[in-house]
Structure formats: C-alpha cells, structure tokens
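User: Run a structure prediction on this.
Assistant: Running it now.
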Amino acid sequence: IKAPVVCVTAGDHALAKKDAVTLDELHEGRLVLCDPHKSSPVITEMQGSLISTRPPSQMFFCENIECALAFVKAGLGFTILMRSDDLCYIPVKNAAPASFGLYYKTLQNNPVLRSFIRIMKECSQVQKL
C-alpha cells in the first residue's frame, strides 16, 4: 500500500483550514517530531528538512505517534505522518482514555522546573482535567 503523507493539526491551528499544504508552508510553526528510527524513510527525510528551518524552541520530540498526536491535540504544533483513508477509527466503549501530562515530585526550591511548567501551560493552553 502507498499511504499519503499528511500534516496533522489541532482543529484551531492555522493550517487546519487548508485542503492541502506545501512543504514551504510547513517551514514555519512548532513541529512535533516522532523518533526517526520508528518512522518511514519518507517521513524521516521530510522531518529532517523541516528541522533545519526552525530553532530548537519550535520543536517537540516524541517517542511514538501516540505521543505526537497528544502534543498536536494539545495545540503544541503540527506533525507529519502517513495516513491511509482506508483505515477507520472506531471508539472502544468503556475504555479508559489515555492521559498525557507532566509529572514532578515537587516544585519547592526548583525555580527552573516551575518556569518550565509555566511555559508548557502557556504553550499548550491545556486545561486541567
């Protein structure tokens, strides 16, 4: 099978309103990246060209696609992946939802961690559950 490469965004992202995007349009904005060892060569090559166009502060690295999609859903940026229109997404009844977030033992006497969490909250605009 040959699956098309797609840009995945949250519904309120600027790119979400487009029917298609060009590679040039992807050279701006925050980018969510998956581990290149777990991606296809096409995606890895595309990610490589997109990495070179932005500073590290505009990139989020994830270990797997599920994590990347959670970052995208949280509004942290967009990602590139292969998608097949032949696949169906069917909710699993009574399954607990996956939870993503930050875990820390204490913020006491840790101004760097406190700043990091504040910045993550500002970037993600995610509300506590």
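The mean pLDDT is 82.
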